[in-house]
Amino acid sequence: MEFQNKTVLITGGASGMGYLCGQCYAKEGAKVVLVDVNREALDKCVAEIAAYPAEVMGVCIDIRDYSKVVEARDMAVERFGSIDILVNCAGGAETRVCNAHGEFHQNPIDIYDFSIDVNLKGAIYFGHAVMAQMAEQKSGVIIHMGSITGEEGGSTNVGYAASKSALMNGVTKSIAQLGAKYNVRSVCIAPGPVLTRPGMASMKTMAGRAADPQEIVDMILYVTSKKGEFINGTTFLIDGGRNVMFNKG
Ligand SMILES: NC(=O)c1ccc[n+]([C@@H]2O[C@H](COP(=O)([O-])OP(=O)(O)OC[C@H]3O[C@@H](n4cnc5c(N)ncnc54)[C@H](O)[C@@H]3O)[C@@H](O)[C@H]2O)c1
Q1: Which residue from 26, 47, 175, 239 puts its CA 20 to 30 A from 79's CA?
Q2: Which atom of ligand 1 is nearest to the CA of 200?
Q3: Residue 59: which H helix or E strand, with range?
Q4: pLDDT tens, 102-157?
């Protein structure tokens, strides 16, 4: 019951690591707010967590719309009274999400706008909205999701790589600097390939495999727990050693 009486808001909470975060925090006693654009998946995830039983609510919004982000924050605070942990999980690489598989210069330019809007601006929007609440509370932790692609580049996924690099450096560090006087920490978790979908198994690592989503979520839980209180303004690459690997193929 590590997170009893804590409220955790998770974007991208209706799939993959976001949903797994929701499940794990709920099992540890937290009140959970799942935010996602996919209403059908969101309703299903909320019903599953509610049946534990646990306190959970879903907010269906597109995180690219700042006014909706503010509404989501306000709904969470109205229902649960605080937001103690924000996990900015919503995101994805533009070539996969937009099904555009040409080279960078051959793909339509709007997929790069899309990627920067979701992966980078969406996280900044939520950080901005939730920081107001956390500053008032004088406590909080904000988690960003980086990626090995933010470290090594992404060839065709230029928007995704740029967004993840920005989250891993400028955004995480800036929010940690600002947040210090409000007792708000900001930490980035940057995974290598994770088996939230089978295709990730083909990405090479020194470990010879992709990560189980639980391995990444366990780190998020640790960083946001009492044991992680000394961790701030930094990025954890959890990539099976890929970042130091020769012959990545
Ligand atoms: N899976 C991997 O191998 C991997 C590796 C490195 C980093 N990451 C990052 O980790 C995070 C989670 O990855 P995952 O594979 O678990 O994700 P996922 O694709 O399973 O889920 C992403 C969720 O975000 C939601 N979403 C997308 N756009 C949105 C929008 N505009 N507004 C609201 N919700 C939106 C989707 O509906 C979906 O439910 C992402 O930021 C991803 O970039 C994933």
Answers
A1: 175
A2: 3
A3: strand 56-60
A4: 999 999 999 999 999 999 999 999 999 999 999 999 999 999 999 999 999 998 99
Q: Residue 174's pLDDT is what?
A: 98
Q: Determine the distance separating the centroid of ligand 1 and the alpha carbon of 169, expressed in angstroms.
A: 19
In angstroms, the CA 126 to CA 63 distance is 8
Q: Is residue 1 included in any domain, yes or no? A: no
Ligand 1 geometric centre to CA of 96 (Å): 11
Which residue is associated with the tokens 């690219």?
64
**Does residue 32 sit in helix, strand or coil?**
strand
- Any domain includes 90: yes
| Ligand 1 within 6 A of CB of 121 | no
- Ligand 1 proximity of 63 Cβ (cutoff 6 Å): yes
- We report the CATH number of the domain holding residue 206 as 3.40.50.720
Tokens 């990539």 — which residue? 239
* Domain annotation covers residue 228: yes
Tokens 């409220």 sit on residue: 7
pTM: 0.98
Residue range of the domain that includes 215 = 7-244
Q: What are phi and psi of 33, to 5 degrees?
A: -115, 115
